[in-house]
Amino acid sequence: MKAQERREAMLEQLCGSARPLSGGSLAKVLGVSRQVVVQDVALLRAEGHDIMATARGYVLMGAAKAPAVAQPSLISNKPQADYAATSSQATRHTRIIKVCHTVAQTADELFTILESDGQVLDVSVSHRVYGRLSAKLDILTLGDALRFLDDIESGKSSPLLTVTSGYHYHTIAADSEATLDRIERALAAKGYLAPFLPHEREDMSAASVGSPHSATASRRTASLNSPGSSSESSYTSTSLPELARRSSESA
After folding, report:
1. What confidence score (pLDDT) does residue 22 get?
2. Burial call 169-193: b when 16+ CB within 10 Å, e when fewer
3. pLDDT at res. 224
4. How far apart are CA 89 and CA 66, in angstroms?
5. CATH number of 93-241: 3.30.365.10, 3.40.30.10, 3.30.1340.20, 1.10.1740.10?
6. Where in the chain are the domains?
7. CA separation (Å) from 187 to 36, 69, 72, 98, 99?
8. pTM exceeds 0.85
9. Which of 110, 140, 199, 205 could bridge across to 145 with cysteines, CB 3.0–4.6 Å?
10. Do 102 and 162 contact (CB within 8 A), yes or no?
């Protein structure tokens, strides 16, 4: 294989991967040494290709982001109504899923969704004290995932799942309900997908009526000792500043 053909093959490998590719894996596929891979990466960068070297491997950056998607009004682990985007560029479908995993498995969870042709729009948790908290993620590309993971690993922030023993929710997006189903199967195969409790469908549907990406806290309205109650019991929304004010008044 000629040098130019090899570099083109490297670009194809990077373009087609939803995960970072290590120098060793590229060397094996291309039949060269790791030093040749390093040299080829340098030459490709000189040609204007935005290749980022991370602790996990090489990533080709600059992929176009998909159009914005509509937010779901229902929650489901099964195919439900289509949630079409208002964008004229494409029709997108979204679904809220419940997952559970460790912090160390966060990268694998995100990569699994991305390589199954999905995107991660947000994350939320239900906490016994703080209530329901949510945050916008907009992880649409591998580059977005790596930036998020770098922020977590650099100590700038901690994932929300740490306050709920690994349980959390994601709004995921894809081009069809069939793709969303495939994403769920991939997550289930790795043991990440968690079943919804009966009351969670109502809670998440009610939460989606407001802003889906605003960070809020909630006040529990159901007794923690009631039958079937858990850390994700029913809530009514209360802002974080309001909770802080009430705490100071009761102190």
Report:
1. 87
2. bbbbbbbebebbbebbebbeeeebb
3. 27
4. 9
5. 3.30.1340.20
6. 3-60, 93-241
7. 36, 21, 20, 10, 8
8. no
9. 110
10. no
